[in-house]
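Extended Data, record Phosphoenolpyruvate--glycerone phosphotransferase
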Amino acid sequence: MAADVAWAQRWVRETARSIAANKEELTELDRQIGDGDHGENMNRGFTAVVAKLDALPEPPAHVSDVLKLVATTLMSTVGGAAGPLYGTAFLRAAKVADLPELDGRGVVAVLEGALEGVQARGKATVGEKTMVDALSPAVQAAVQAADGGGDARAVFAAAAEAAQKGAEGTIPLLATKGRASYLGERSIGHQDPGATSTALILAAGVVASETAP
């Protein structure tokens, strides 16, 4: 399977559905160590993305067109740190996705671009209890899958699985970035909401690859 423009659009729609279904969980996770608005903010953002996708006068030509739309919409509609972080992630990803479709290596490039964007914006590294703790292992798993000859779906699936494990791995971590860092040791024992939403977004990409017409 190649990740084409139709897949990218399904990815957006599936992400919106997944975020909406998990909105309360994301909100509760953020209530424990943050502002308590991550679920609502992400739901509002991806609802807006789908609305803009539906309103396009012409279908997107390249995967990058879809990713750019996601980036600009999230930046303008998602509050807190998540809007700029996710917006930058999708914008950097779009720069390497100016193609009608992506193969396994193309998916790796997209994920690497997203990680670079998040780290450039948030200055976070692995182990600081942020979305980087989901996205970084996702990139590593994607590279390994691509090196093994995996197609776009296989690479994305490997990334999504690693992201989920990475998100769960934030539970014992001490937060040293973002609002959660204000809690000090009280942040230990809670799963990071940004890492969790990152895992949901990547999992949605796998579902999108399985629901191709």
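Summary. The chain has a mean pLDDT of 94.
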